[in-house]
């Protein structure tokens, strides 16, 4: 199933938390080799996790098109990827984790135009959501067409919401966790198919370090009433010290569940055959969100290399990639060992 005996040459575009995760994941895959990290910072200022990782300037990317089989884009979805995705798709086969769900269709079109024009293959919006959760939502709907799909996130750190609380006057530092509401999950698991409001599906928990002299009551009120972030949720605010924040909240856990509850059978009112309530559940418990997302990007980079070698160009999503293309194992091995 591999494209050749040569390792897949991977480039990393950007070296934040996600880029460091990609670096570690590539080193775990013997059919890959890391060409290097490409950064907008001074390469000499980087301190890669692995001593053999090379760092290069972002502007040198255009000169390395013959050295990289797949470039993994590790920028953010808000401002980096909308520009970098189409730009890099003109030069390389790419993989990214664009996760602004509402803008995926327009982002796909932009990347597809660039990749198709130059004969490259670019997989967008992978990771775990969008990505693995997206696949499981599709499986659920296809297998149980009469039913409802539910997605719950957490317990995990929301980087966007954490940034929002840090912008509240009087807040020196802070972190916010998204928590799935256990009664809602249990109702779905029981096959009840409830209609759930935003407040009923998730709660939010904030751990805040106050600036000197700040009024905790005022800060808490500003947080829990913040539109678009906390006003629609049951939100708890805890005030802690800077030492407690550093000690207890430096990690970046996340995860969640996708559930599909649906009916099979003809139904009790049709020829007397009973309807069977079925529930599909897929869940993730992640100790570190960026490194898990990076591992998904690397697996899909293998698939992109294979698609590109087969001449299957243009933009792709996880819905376009056969599962076997993710594995370094041959089709015969997968049939013998995993099927």
Written overview of the protein:
The two termini are 16 Å apart. The protein has helices at 17-27, 81-89, 104-118, 132-143, 159-166, 182-189, 198-201, 216-224, 242-248, 289-309, 331-337; strands spanning 8-13, 32-39, 55-57, 70-73, 94-95, 121-123, 147-153, 156-157, 171-180, 202-210, 234-239, 254-264, 276-286, 314-316. The longest helix has 21 residues, at 289-309. A seven-stranded parallel beta sheet has the order 3-2-1-4-5-6-14, with helices on both faces. Strands 8-9-10-11 form a four-stranded mixed beta sheet. A three-stranded antiparallel beta sheet has the order 7-12-13, sandwiched between helices. Helices cover 33% and strands 25% of the residues. 35% of the residues are buried. The chain is of the alpha/beta class and 339 residues long. Helix 1 crosses helix 10 (289-309) and helix 2 (81-89) runs parallel beside helix 3 (104-118). The mean pLDDT is 94. It contains eleven helices and 14 strands.
Q: What sequence of helices (H) and strands (E) makes up the elements?
A: EHEEEHEHEHEEHEHHEHEHEEHEH
Q: How many DSSP helices?
A: 11
Rg:
23 Å
Strand portion, in percent?
25-35%
Large-scale geometry: globular
Name the poorly predicted regions: none
Strand order of the largest sheet: 3-2-1-4-5-6-14
End-to-end separation:
16 Å
Can you give the mean pLDDT?
Answer: 94
Helix percent band: 25-40%
Structural class: alpha/beta
Query: Total strand count, please?
Result: 14
Strand count, sense and barrel status of the largest sheet are: 7 strands, parallel
